[in-house]
Protein: Putative restriction endonuclease domain-containing protein
Amino acid sequence: MGVPVHTLTLTEFLEWENEQPDRHEFFRGETFAMVGGRRGRGRVIANLMRHLGNHLDESPCQVFSENMKVQVGDEAILYPDVFVTCDQRFTADDIVFTAPVLIVEVLSPTTQRYDRSEKFAIYRKLSALREYVLIDPETRRAEVFRPQADGSCMYFDMTEHGRLVLESIGFELPLGLVFKGMESDGVEGAG
Structure:
């Protein structure tokens, strides 16, 4: 999370942010400008969107990417990198979702600490959330956290198994496909 740029109410933030050319997150009255991502992060998001979208086709669930907002109570509006909702209450015009079952954050050096701590603590307040996934393009790691009814979380390191397993939506994907297209990182002329 960056430096706050405004202090607003949730309603004021939603009105203000919808008029801005750039994205901002909201937490307890403060707004934070979102920064751009790297190629590896974008590649992972695109791969996940494609495979999750295909998996969820013909199901009541839908996958969304970093341009859609998730609201956590009255205290936060966040932009997950990828999320899945099975909530049938939304319409085609909705811009804010409140019941994701799965949230994926693709880590970067600047957001890793925040995604692992404060942001995860905020997301855990979502009653519908069944899995929180952290994917690191640099180390090729995939970690899954499954909130439990007692408030604890079960942790699964998917890296060692070579597969991303998401129980919340009955989905499995080899990690090679999660990171596909990143093989040319650092190769001259790769674009």
Remarks:
- The longest strand covers residues 100-106.
- The CA atoms of residues 32 and 77 lie 10 Å apart.
